[in-house]
Amino acid sequence: MRRALMTAARPRLAPPDDEAPDTRRDPRGGYMSVIETAGARVLAGHTGAVNSVAFSPDGARLSTASEDKTARVWNTATGDLVHTLAGHADAVFAAPFSPDGRRIATVSADLTPRLWDTSTGACVMELTGHTIAVFGVAFSPDGRVLATTSYDETVRLWDTTAGTTLRVLEGHSDIVYGAAFSPDGRLLATASGDGTTRLWNVATGACVRVLTGHTGIVSAVAFSPDGALIATASFDSTARLWEVSTGNCLRILSGHSDTVWSITFSPAERVVASASEDATARVWDAASGTMIRTLEGHTDSAFVVAYSPDGRLLATASSDTTVRLWESASGRCIRTLEGHTGAVSSLAFSPTDRQLATASTDETARIWAL
Fold this sequence. Notes:
CATH class: Mainly Beta
InterPro entries: Quino_amine_DH_bsu (IPR011044), WD40/YVTN_repeat-like_dom_sf (IPR015943), WD40_PAC1 (IPR020472), WD40_repeat_CS (IPR019775), WD40_repeat_dom_sf (IPR036322), WD40_rpt (IPR001680)
Keywords: Repeat, WD repeat
CATH superfamily: YVTN repeat-like/Quinoprotein amine dehydrogenase
Region (Disordered): 1-29
Distance between the termini: 30 Å
Pfam families: WD40
GO molecular function: U4 snRNA binding; U6 snRNA binding
């Protein structure tokens, strides 16, 4: 829902006068610009809002997915365009890399997920079966299974080698917005507009738990690093913590005053961070459910929150066009990243902690040096 609402086409925005574009030839035709600004490289070339960004496992490449019906692959060291992944007939919502970096999966409003070869940019598989827009996508930890979520109220599991459907997971009664694999790859958690989260056995396709309690759309779901807990975010202004082994709700995280869009666990300690329409992010103790701190400073909706791989930094993205970097230990805002001219809809830390990538409705992505 968040991405669909945020990514409506916007007029093409020209770079500010004080940014001199470094114009380079797009290998697929036309021109693209890499604009060097203080602390950031601007990846320009999409002709629609950029919905998501994702780093390759080695951090050498960045993928971007756009309303312009394409995904693009960029060299993170130079900002050069490596591939344009063209073929979808409608908006592309996400384009994550496989765990081995050899494939990119794209999902689109055109109903068909696709798999692409990252070395050539060629589409190697078109996955058919969904009947309405495909919104969410996740690779299993070993890369052998791809999960896709759809407006058709189903989740599909695909064999990434053969391109065949392994399982169709049915049971939700509304749009399925997102999915997350457990760290061991045995379970899949799905978040739905029906107000529930479901846990599925990946091998059999059986639904093993239905997590009920939210009174609004479940907008996001995440596993803890040890796989023992699940965190969910909801339109009901709360987040919840659940025990995977029993399906019991352990804690209700109350404090936000509007939709909670994003939820994530710290990789370094047992805490959870949430981002909300109320323009704040909050950090919670996962054991007690106690709110540790509120991160204030954004002037509009906080859409995304993410920890750096080492857990020392927290980043938030907002419709106020900025990204904020926070020190995890203290909650102090150490940088405000300004430059986007539209809502910032997605962000990702590089695996090395040295870069942060952001996507915006201003039709650009940016790579920030940390």
